[in-house]
Design goal:
Strand content: under 5%
Helix content: 55-70%
Distance between the termini: 144 Å
Number of strands: 0
Number of helices: 30
Order of helices and strands: HHHHHHHHHHHHHHHHHHHHHHHHHHHHHH
Oligomer: single chain
Length: about 575
């Protein structure tokens, strides 16, 4: 059988509509119908759930008036009978509104051409404001006033009237006694600053941002930064309740994101924030940020201690929580806490050093030895050990400890960073540990420096220490440099200027005495030493120094002339 294209045209009919409809076809239709009903029921449940979610979200974004006034209605229950009786009765304003003639209060400006046309037809003018009717235009009235002729509007009088009104308004804003303005410019600006910035930019931009963030939260509801940005947008525009609703929804959708919970606590009042953080702790018991926020919300020290101890039960390896807990305790309790802290966080240098500071000298040495065993690659433990020996007048051990530290770190394949060690020397200088500072400088100053660059590099180090007011470290750099370049006049001169500006007169003169010993032909050093004695009023000593300078120098004639004077 051949089918032509004409017989297949259209899609309204069935290709097998002309066949017999038997019992099997009827059963198949019943089965398909039941399947369609079942699928429709499943889709119906989904539709109803989606509709409920949309209604819930709409009610959250735009609450009913009844919901907005729920707190006020709740407060009505606390009113007494006297308060109820003091409420005034509502008067009936309908009759007053009907009898009130509102049309008389409306003024519509009439064009000048209409006024001129009417005046020309009637032949006289009428002033509505005064009720005085005049005769023919151009004639004098009974009050001696002249009526302007048609087309002769008195524009001068109109200008005078406008100026009078402006003067009245300005007088209202001025003091009637002194004539000065009563408007405070500073107060005016303060009032403007106190206004909530509801529109920080174009309203259209805010609407676009709101739609964009709404699209982000709808397409990817698990994206926490989108919810936070949407809440902050509403907060900036002055809709704080809307921002709170958004962030509460975010906490429901993203319960495992700590930033969402912290933002929710920030937007809520203090008591509500505590309940939100409590929920956050139940969802994220391992979050340090959440526990830290819970501590910040507490005002009482005892309450903070309880929160921190509960936090340490859940996160015993958090260094930050241990440090916060130690800061709230007394020295005795802090030592006990730190003993437990170094057991839970054995790789924390700060906790080991803090425990060593609270212990006695012998116990502190044991603590630092244990710390070196646990953390053999950290330099701070060795430096704290050296400072401990210096503080207990065991100064000969300081240099040995620093040298042993470099040897141990190199054995553990740790790179000796010269800049970091010099920074540690500066910190020791500021912490009033001069022996440790000098030991560090002498040990590490030559590490990683080429032979031809030593003088330039070390002078730069001395200048950097001087700029940072680390004078002990700078003096140590000059001392080490002079042991290497003992015959360099320029280095002795710079060291002398340093002692003159930042040292004592004894240190300055002692340095110059050693300088002329190593550089006996340096005229400027002899002169600086003699001048120092002369300025101190010791002229014989200055003369003796110049006599000593005559022998090793070749400029005896110049010094002879100086002596003759």
């Amino acid at each position: 059988m051949s089918l032509t294209s004409t017989s297949l045209q259209g899609s309204g009919g069935s290709l097998f509509g002309g066949g017999p409809y038997d019992k099997e076809d009827e059963e198949a239709d019943i089965v398909y119908e039941s399947i369609d009903k079942r699928m429709d029921e499943r889709r119906k449940i989904r539709r109803e759930e989606r509709l409920k979610e949309e209604i819930k979200r709409y009610r959250m974004e735009k609450p009913k008036i009844q919901q907005q006034f729920e707190d006020i209605k709740r407060e009505l229950g606390t009113m007494s009978s006297d308060d109820w009786s003091a409420i005034p009765d509502v008067s009936n304003m309908t009759r007053t509104k009907k009898n009130k003639n509102t049309r008389a209060e409306r003024f519509t400006p009439v064009p000048d051409s209409v006024i001129e046309r009417i005046a020309s037809k009637q032949g006289h003018s009428t002033y509505a404001s005064s009720g005085i009717s005049t005769a023919l235009p151009g004639t004098a009235t009974s009050l001696g006033m002249k009526t302007p002729a048609p087309g002769e509007l008195d524009l001068l009088q109109i200008g005078v009237a406008k100026n009078s009104m402006l003067g009245v308004k300005l007088d209202q804003a001025s003091d009637s006694v002194t004539g000065q303005t009563v408007v405070d410019p500073r107060g005016y600006l303060t009032d403007l600053n106190s206004i909530t910035p509801r529109n920080l930019g174009d309203v259209g931009d805010i609407k676009k941002a709101r739609l964009l963030l709404q699209s982000v939260t709808n397409t990817n509801p698990k994206h926490a930064p989108g919810w936070i940005a949407a809440a902050r947008l509403e907060e900036v525009t002055g809709k704080l309740q809307q921002a709170r609703n958004i962030i509460v929804k975010a906490c429901e959708v993203c319960p495992l994101n700590e930033d969402v919970w912290i933002e929710a606590a920030r937007l809520q009042p203090s008591e509500m924030a505590k309940s939100i953080i409590a929920k956050a702790v139940r969802n994220l018991p391992q979050s340090v940020k959440i526990w830290d926020k819970a501590v910040q919300l507490e005002d009482d020290t005892m309450a903070k201690r309880r929160v921190l101890r509960k936090a340490l039960e859940n996160i015993p390896n958090s260094v930050k929580l241990w440090k916060d807990a130690v800061e709230l305790e007394e020295p005795g309790d802090a030592r006990i806490l730190l003993g437990r802290a170094v057991e839970c966080c054995p790789t924390s240098v700060e906790l080991w050093c803090a425990l060593a500071k609270l212990e006695t000298y012998e116990n502190a040495r044991k603590v630092l030895n244990k710390a070196r065993q646990k953390i053999p690659t950290d330099r701070k433990i060795w430096i704290n050990a050296a400072r401990l020996e210096e503080a207990n007048n065991n100064k000969e051990m300081v240099h040995k400890i620093i040298e042993r530290a470099l040897t141990s770190l190199k054995a553990n394949i740790v790179e000796i960073n010269r800049e970091l060690w010099l920074k540690e020397a500066e910190e020791c200088d500021q912490a009033e540990s001069p022996i440790t500072c000098q030991a560090i400088v002498r040990t590490v100053i030559a590490i990683g420096v080429e032979t031809e660059d030593r003088k330039h590099t070390w002078m730069e180090d001395a200048d950097a220490f001087t700029a940072n007011k680390a004078y002990v470290a700078a003096r140590a750099v000059y001392a080490y440099t002079l042991t290497v370049f003992a015959t360099k006049k320029s280095i002795w001169q710079r060291a002398a200027f340093f002692e003159k500006n930042h040292g004592t007169i004894e240190q300055y003169e002692s340095l110059l005495q050693r300088a002329v010993t190593y550089c006996p032909k340096a005229e400027v050093l002899w002169l600086m030493r003699a001048k120092s004695k002369w300025l101190a009023g010791n002229v014989p000593e200055a003369r003796s120094i110049l006599n000593d300078a005559l022998e090793p120098t070749r400029t005896a004639r110049r010094y002879g002339l100086l002596l003759s004077h």
